[in-house]
Design goal:
By secondary structure, the chain is an alpha/beta fold. It is 37% helix and 17% strand. It contains 13 helices and 10 strands. The strands form 2 sheets. The protein has a 7-stranded mixed sheet. It has a 3-stranded mixed sheet with strand order 5-10-9. Helix 1 links the parallel strand 1 and strand 2. The radius of gyration is 19 Å and the shape is globular. The mean pLDDT is 93.
Length: 289
């Protein structure tokens, strides 16, 4: 068995999406892959995990563990409805010391392939690995990263899907820097903190590791610019097998780009509820009418 540790951080507002996300992870796993799943949650609010605990009963090649996070980020800046659990990923090297390297993922994603190849990425000398966010192609973000953050917009990665080199982060003593930066009012919160603190020690991955709404949009309207970052094969693989990240509107709430993929995995997962499925689409049809 190839053991892959993977970490998620969420609260009770995202339990249902988390169940679908974790199901897609297991549906897409190879027979010889074992996922050691860690879920980080606040000490202030007990996590309702009775449904999540059923997952190993459906899929044998996984284990779920919970880690409680202290109040380190209780006063951290919140914006756009993103709450403090978003910052918990910054503490992973301390909270999960049994692994030198882990994967991290938000739960507003659908996994469509096994993660072994990504986990086996050589992380020598790097703190984290992720996917270019295309910030340098968006004028408002160019201005933000030049004037507010001060890093410039080039090479900013998404924080929703990461490879975290815990050993290197601890050796470089980066976590105190994370905690200090989290006091600032950055527009993209943990993502900005991570990019600032790890600058110069970031590895860049193919878009298959984090196929966002923006990459999907650019593939239609500004494909020539994408081709300067990734080749045709990498882009094709992302749309065929990549991790679909719903970093804008959420498919369980509204119609959005790639929402059909989320609902297809929901229909196939062991948590499927026919009434919930019907009510969503019936409501949307009436809304459109």
């Amino acid at each position: 068995m190839n053991t892959i540790p993977i970490v998620f951080c969420f609260d009770n507002n995202l339990v249902k999406p988390a169940c679908v996300c974790l199901s897609s992870l297991m549906m897409s796993a190879k027979e010889d892959t074992f996922y050691d799943i860690f879920i980080l949650h606040s000490q202030k609010q007990p996590l309702e995990h009775s449904q999540i605990d059923k997952l190993p009963g459906f899929y044998k090649n996984c284990r779920i563990q919970y880690r409680v996070v202290d109040g380190t980020f209780d006063e951290a800046f919140e914006i756009r409805g993103i709450t403090t659990p978003a910052y918990y990923r910054l503490l992973i090297p301390e909270l999960i010391p049994e692994y030198d390297k882990v994967l991290y993922s938000d739960v507003d994603v659908i996994f469509r392939s096994d993660l072994s190849d990504f986990y086996n990425t050589d992380m020598t000398g790097c703190n984290v690995a992720g996917v270019d966010s295309l910030a340098n192609l968006q004028p408002e973000l160019v201005k933000y990263y030049n004037e507010t953050v001060g890093t410039g917009p080039d090479g900013i990665i998404y924080s929703g899907n990461l490879i975290i080199n815990s050993k290197q982060i601890l050796e470089d003593n980066v976590i105190p820097r994370f905690k200090e930066l989290a006091k600032n009012k950055y527009m993209f919160q943990d993502m900005d903190v991570l990019n600032i603190a790890c600058r110069g020690k970031i590895k860049y991955l193919s878009p298959a590791f984090c196929l966002t709404t923006y990459i999907s949009e650019y593939n239609v309207y500004r494909r020539e610019e994408l081709m300067k970052i990734w080749n045709k094969e990498e882009i094709s693989d992302a749309f065929s097998n990549g991790i679909v990240h719903f970093n804008g509107k959420k498919p369980w709430k509204d119609v959005c780009i790639n929402f059909d993929i989320w609902w297809e995995y929901y229909r196939r997962c062991p948590y499927f509820d026919e009434k919930h499925y019907f009510d969503f689409f019936n409501y949307k049809l009436n809304e459109l009418d």
